[in-house]
Design brief:
Elements: E1 4-9, H1 14-26, E2 30-35, H2 42-47, E3 54-59, H3 63-73, E4 80-84, E5 89-94, E6 100-104, E7 109-110, E8 117-125, E9 130-135
Parallel strand pairs: 1-2, 1-3, 3-4, 5-9
Antiparallel strand pairs: 5-6, 7-8, 8-9
Bound molecules: zinc ion.
Length: about 140
């Protein structure tokens, strides 16, 4: 049986979406990419998908909104995979002064409170609802 996956992505993440598509197809699944800024009727698109379709959301902005919308159409959490775009801003928790700041997800930045250079890690703190950032020493 051919499983179907659709990838919802934006211009900035198109290349990552392409490589994701190749991975999915190597597993023998059918995969289609929809770029969100092509003015697609997302709700219509989602509700016209056959039962059992998996949805991958790979975008910079509004990923949570997209997830909500996808769920509203009837998809469950198990059907939906959210992949954060590289340029997305996230809350980063400064390990030096505990200041939380919204910055691009994968870029070093200077903490506006303690002035340390901080590098965001992949460690997400549910308590702070932020990724932990560690100082970069040069
Ligand atoms: Zn700080």
């Amino acid at each position: 049986m051919n499983k179907r996956t659709i990838i919802l992505t934006d211009q900035e993440n198109r290349e990552r979406a392409q490589s994701r598509k190749r991975e999915i197809e190597q597993e023998g699944c059918h995969c289609t990419i929809y770029q969100l800024d092509e003015r697609i009727e997302l709700k219509e698109l989602l509700s016209s998908q056959p039962l059992g379709t998996k949805v991958v959301i790979l975008a910079d902005d509004n990923v949570q909104t997209l997830r909500q919308l996808t769920k509203a159409v009837g998809f469950t959490n198990r059907d939906i995979t959210v992949v954060q775009g590289e340029h997305e801003s996230s809350r980063i928790f400064c390990s030096q002064c505990h200041h939380i700041q919204k910055v691009p997800r994968y870029q070093e930045y200077q903490c506006s409170n303690c002035q340390n250079h901080i590098e965001p890690s992949d460690h997400f703190s549910a308590f702070h609802q932020a990724y932990l950032g560690y100082p970069v020493f040069k």
